[in-house]
Amino acid sequence: VLSGLLTIGDLVVFISYVTALYGPVNSITQSWGLLHEAKAGLDRVFQILNVNHDLPDGQALFPARGAAGDISIQGVVFGYPQDRPILKNISLQIKAGEKVAIVGASGAGKSTLISLIPRFCDPSVGSVLLDGVDIRTYRLDSLRRQIAMVLQNPVVFPLSIGENISYGCPDATPPEIVSAARIACIHDVIERLPDGYGTFIGEGGYALSEGEKQRITIARAILRDAPILILDEPTSSVDVQTEERIMESLLEPSSDKTVIVITHRLSAVRHADRIVVMEGGRIIAEDTCDRLLAASPHIATGLRTEDSDIVSPGNGL
Asked: What is the DSSP letter of 265?
């Protein structure tokens, strides 16, 4: 401009063009980086999708009415490294509609044993039969629809409480959701919340205590109304009185559901038809609560006895 080769107008136009060019070029470079990040993520997704399933899927489907719930575990041996078995030649028969409690010290193999029923893993030796048929015969999705599970660590979602309870049964009606919540002894707690069943509980259920989250997952399992209900320490964070009410409902003799509960509390197993005691990956005893304690009082040492109304010095504990 000073030398007269370029006018002021030409300079202004040039600067305007350079300014206008910067935005698109910057967008292109950012998009290029995002595309490469997305490609890396996509590669990982396809690596997971292309993994062969460790558990081969069966072909059979359960009838529309569902399973009867008769479970037979026959000569099962299982270990995460196969040369170090956790379960050692276990055989257990659970009749349809029976309420069975599995007790034992931590590491005895209780959770591993029940994980064989929905086929989270398969035994190295032996088999698990449902209604007289090897469960490996069935499609995994059909098999798992017959089972409702409550785990020790409750899983809740960043949804409303009503949506959390009906997560496995999205077509459930509000009265059905309330009925399940009443059985799980969480209805009164929900009613006191500002939005009731519409209350959003946030990521990880931060708005609820551990005991309340456990009761929500119990209500979810009840609402699914599956023929087999598996409870793995479902009330570990619930007070003894509330636990007593919940377990009394879940282990109701008139119910036709097959119920398996893992627990360390005597109050949770007193309503069971039978108690199975595990130790070191083996079943060492099984009988009714009263007969088992009378015959082998030392077996109850692994059960927590916070509830003095239920456990007294006179019963051998």
From this structure: B
